[in-house]
Specification:
Helices cover 95% and strands 0% of the residues. With 41 residues, the chain is an all-alpha fold.
């Protein structure tokens, strides 16, 4: 029972961190590209 719960918690945290990383990378790329284009303008 404990192992199953631990595995479920690890899966939940892993999924949460994975989505957070994707969101952060998307925001970071948008910020970087905006700065690059603004410098060119």
């Amino acid at each position: 029972m404990k192992d199953a719960l631990k595995r479920r918690m690890c899966a939940f945290l892993g999924c949460f961190l994975f989505l957070g990383a994707i969101n952060w990378f998307r925001n970071h790329d948008a910020y970087f590209y905006d700065n690059k284009y603004n410098k060119n303008m």
